[in-house]
Target: Malate dehydrogenase (Oxaloacetate-decarboxylating)(NADP+)
Amino acid sequence: MFEQTTSALSGRQVLSRADINKGTAFSIAERQDLHLEGLLPPSIEDLDLQVKRVLEHLGEIKDELHQYVYLIDLEERNQTVFYKTIMSDPKRFIPILYDPVVADACLKFGHIYRRPRGLYITRDMKGRMTEVLRNWPEKDVRFICVTTGGRILGLGDIGANGMGIPVGKLQLYTACAAVPPEGLLPVLFDIGTSNEQLRNDPYYLGTREAPLGEEDVDELTEEFVQAVQEVFPNCCLHFEDWKGTQAIRMLNRYKDQILCYNDDIQGTASVVLAGIAGGLNIKGEVLKDQRVFFYGAGSAGTGIAKLVKAEMLTQGLGEEEANSRIAMFDVDGLICSTRNDLNEAQAPFAHNVEYTSDLVEALRMFKPTIIVGASTHAGGFTQEVVETLCEFSDQPMIFAISNPTFKVECTAEQAYTWSKGQALFAAGVQFPDFELNGKLHRPGQANNFYIYPAIGLATYVAKPKRLNDECFIVAAHAVADQINPEMREQGMLFPSQDNILESEIQTATKVVEYMFDSGLAQVERPADIRDWIEGQLYTPKY
Ligand SMILES: O=C([O-])CC(=O)C(=O)O
Ligand SMILES: [Mg+2]
Model:
């Protein structure tokens, strides 16, 4: 990259390009060649020392949001130092660049704003989207992460403030799975926002209008999707944090047409399936014998239910039997056949039972062995709920995936304490380890970042025509297979984040194998897939 571009650039231009800037690490010869002499302090440093300085500085910033701001600034000065820093300690930095701190960064987006990132697509660009996409300087875009901001994490509609999410998601493609950063493009698809408080905030940076109606959104999306095909023909579209019904509709419309996926539906489903598989390995049980209860039936909840059902079918259950092992409960109560407000994703799980709006009563009727909270209802899993779950299973599995932290259905400490140490627990954010009666419990983080960076890496190397649900099922099992007996002993449902790159490579390797076996891959099959992947990884170095 550097060799190709330096001939045209010199002096301050070089220093202001984060992808080629080495700052104080430019050698004497480079300083002479690039007309950098005098523009840098005389000391010549190496990357390790630059990273040490960053770590020292970060250590002095107590507030996590300000650590986030510092890191984003760093990325815009020197991409290599940024990724070297993040990849040196992923467990520490994932929660800062991503959930939960990114939630705070999104809420305050207009207030902490420094420089533009990615692309903003607005309604007035209708008819001109190819032109606008061509404004992006990188021509070989391989992934676009696009959000409307219509449902950011558990925060609801925050419009253009949602840009923090595609930025953060794509950073994790690189930080977790070493996908080269240059082909990653965050997009905020600004259809307006229903958030009046934001529209009245003088610092709000998006379109100050109510959201477009569904028909207009569909038309605008269609133009955007086709423009992406034309301008970036090798691009995979990653849909993120669109409003639930829109998310489901877009995925259904485009999944067989273009290379795309929805992380909230398929990525989240895959990671929960991975956690369930990990938990079942601990218990020595199989999925087809479980009863799975969903608290929250939006795009995440129904996406997980669909994948759980698909897996039950592969284990030999019939359609009806699989449906009967899954139940859902949303803000309006138990999803049952007398309800007439259900969407197509919820309908298969509406059983012929008596309606109740009481969660504990619904649990008593259904007797689940696994509960998945994707409700954004903070504290929805009360002590009574957890104690009730313990009546149906010695080791109930509890997934409380609503995020950020202040939206979680219950904390790890609550799950372990109320279940007297019996629960197998994971949340959408990482809770600290918890000791109860001398036993250490290690809660998992059931977050889609175990999945989508690996799917991204697999897609980057194998260039599949399409991504199907099977890719996400394969990824889920690859993650679950990484839990060794010692980790099982501590109740771990997910691999450790210390070694996230290794985990994502293992997952990507399995997904790539599947892509070749199923004929999805569009490149020649290499002799050794893992080796071949390793040869294409991004490494932060000069
Ligand atoms: O970003 C995360 O942490 C998980 C996610 O996709 C969401 O909550 O929408
Ligand atoms: Mg999301």
